[in-house]
Amino acid sequence: MRLRNPFGRKPKEFPSHLWTQCPSCGEMLFNKQLERNHNVCQKCGHHFKLDAAGRVELLADARSFTETDADIVSSDPLGFVDSKPYPERIAAAQAKTGHKDAVLTGDATISAIPIVLAVMDFEFMGGSMGSVVGEKLTRAAERAFAERKPLVIVSASGGARMQEGTIALMQLAKTVAALARLDEARIPFISVLTDPTTGGVLASFASLGDIVLAEPGALIGFSGARVTSETIGEKLPKGFQRAEFLVEHGFVDQVVPRTQLKERIAFFLNAFRIAGQDLRWSL
Amino acid sequence: MLDRIVRTRRAGEGNGHLAIEAGLVTDATQLAAGRPTAWQAVQTARNIARPHAVEIIGRVFDRFQELHGDRAFRDDPAIVGGIAELAGRPVMIVAQQKGASTEENIQRNFGMPYPEGYRKGMRLYRLAEKFHLPLVTLVDTPGAYPGPEAEERGQAEAIASSIQLMTRLATPIVVVVLGEGGSGGALALGVGDVVLALENATYSVISPEGCAAILWRSASEAERAAAAMKLAGPDLLETGVVDALIREPAGGAHTDHDATAAAIKTALIAQVERLARVPIADLLSLRYERFRAFGTIVEPSGGQAPAPPRPWWRRILSSAIRNPTAGGES
After folding, report:
1. Looking at the complex, does the CB of residue B309 fall below 8 Å from at least one CB of chain A?
2. Backbone phi, then psi, for A224, in 5-degree steps?
3. How far apart are CA A150 and CA B117, in angstroms?
4. What is the DSSP string of B80-91?
5. Cβ contacts of residue B315 below 8 Å, gap of 6+?
6. How many other C-beta atoms are found inside a 10 Å radius of the C-beta of residue B144?
7. Whole-angstrom distance between the N-terminal and C-terminal Cα of chain A?
8. What is the DSSP letter of B247?
9. What is the ipTM of this complex?
């Protein structure tokens, strides 16, 4: 028989499909209300993860998002098998998320400004970047370049997809090469880092925004905290690799609460848009 | 609907007039006899007696003058850079340096650069561009240093910027993977017009131990992970990650440093000579295409975007035009 602490609070019973407990303040949140608040705890402002569809709804103007390159799927270049073959993992992730891979790209408007928007979905194999994510982001950047539209990428990823081996690593070079062209053409690129953004994604396009924004408390780092603490053999300080830590060390411009994200992106795009237009007239 | 598998690169293809010379291995089948297992390649690539960058530089180049520091924080001993002559032609060298002994390894941080190491590299890349020096990079690292100081100083940003700078650096770049090509920390020196590797070098997205710890939940499965990731020389040729392999002496590079360096020297002279003749604009667009082509995807629509749904008023309008009597009045 288990001993009960007679002074402890009795655990309350909540059906889990209706309620979610906030890991930060312990408040029980009604799922529907949480969803309406874009997965932010009403009481303490804790940011839960937000899937790609929720992210598009948060940022794009109503009905403005048109998905592109939606049907690209990964082949299995290495014939990779760990505890499951890679194609089975993809199929399971597709069934779980309803998307073909870990990023949605498309055209949208943000406060009436036409942009190219890419949002990653952590639910799809940890948001990992393989050939498909690399290809779709590269095409998004190339389209932004061709149509002279700003690019906004919202990252949520554990890094490169191990199941595609070195080909996945090469996506780092592929995506940043396309962004270099945007940079040279003076087309704005805004990178939004959400929980979590780590590894090869942070070590490529996600770090290279003209403006880099992050959501409160998001885990952002090059190597996993476990690897780091194993390397130095001690526990890491509180707040290590959180969004606020990156602002403090100079690698993120601002921490922006999710509810203000859209208006903040629009502010920067407006500022840059005007500058770009002035420039074009002067030429 | 026609399924289209696009762009699986084959070595040598897609590089146009940058085709690789004889003397190098460009076809994995040439290595079929006695091809080592992935795990053997990992062990050979990590062998402490293998020739490291400084030794290779001393044997391949003349009059090497080392340049230190990132001009912002400090000099990172895990990255060695400087100017030297390659058969009389001045070139810029940026290399990752492992130690040949425990003491040297501690000093060199086992070849794991800090962000300031990559920033030193970027400073030298820009210097090479400014004065039209061909750039030679030598890759040999288990990965970028993952410690907390490295995180504080922006390891990811340093790597990302370094990769991006190389994709658009207006000077010829030849990359040689000497030993371990450890993930993003290697790619930060690894973007070039031609990417060569020693026969027993490896190049991987994550260390076999790291991969095993995540996917098999046990670092002791590293051998399986190494085989699954296809990180050995012949695999890299097949995927096009490297353009050609440089033959090592029988038994591996550690058995004969002089012979290894001589093979690297021959290859470098030929590649730098050839790239120096290509106009920079062509070089840059070929370099873009080289990395743009990586990826194995299936695209059922063949890249044709589905026609966007027409808005309701366009549908009514077009039916009204086609059939004026039925359109407006009914």
Report:
1. no
2. -55, 145
3. 32
4. EEEEEEETTEEE
5. none
6. 29
7. 82
8. P
9. 0.91
Nearest alpha carbon to residue A172 among B205, B236, B96? B205
Nearest CA to CA, how far is B210 from chain A (Å)? 9
A189-198 and A220-221 beta bridge pairing: parallel
Distance from CA of B296 to the nearest CA of A (A): 6
What is the CB neighbour count within 10 angstroms for residue B122?
A: 20
Return d(Cα B114, Cα B95) in angstroms, integer.
Answer: 13
Is A118:A150 a contact under the CB 8 Å cutoff?
A: no
Tokens of A166: 């070195």
Alpha-carbon span B135 to B118, nearest angstrom: 15
| Contact in structure between A131 and B295 (CB atoms under 8 Å) | yes
pLDDT 10s digit of each residue in chain B, 330 long? 333 333 334 434 444 434 456 578 888 777 766 678 899 999 999 999 999 999 999 999 999 999 999 999 999 999 999 999 999 999 999 999 999 999 999 999 999 999 999 999 999 999 999 999 999 999 999 999 999 999 999 999 999 999 999 999 999 999 999 999 999 999 999 999 999 999 999 999 999 998 998 888 887 889 999 999 999 999 999 999 999 999 999 888 999 999 999 999 999 999 999 999 999 999 999 999 999 999 999 988 776 665 666 666 777 777 777 766 554 444
Per CB-CB distance under 8 Å, the chain A contacts of B166 are 173
Distance CA A156, CA B125 (A): 31
- Quote the radius of gyration of chain A (alpha carbons, Å): 20
> Are B291 and A177 within 8 A, CB to CB?
yes
Alpha-carbon distance A135 to nearest alpha carbon in chain B (angstroms): 7
Q: How far is CA B317 from the centre of its chain?
A: 55
| Identity of residue A279 | L
For A278, other C-beta atoms within 10 Å of its C-beta total: 9
- Give the pTM: 0.89
Q: Is the peptide bond before B36 cis (omega within 30 degrees of 0)?
A: no
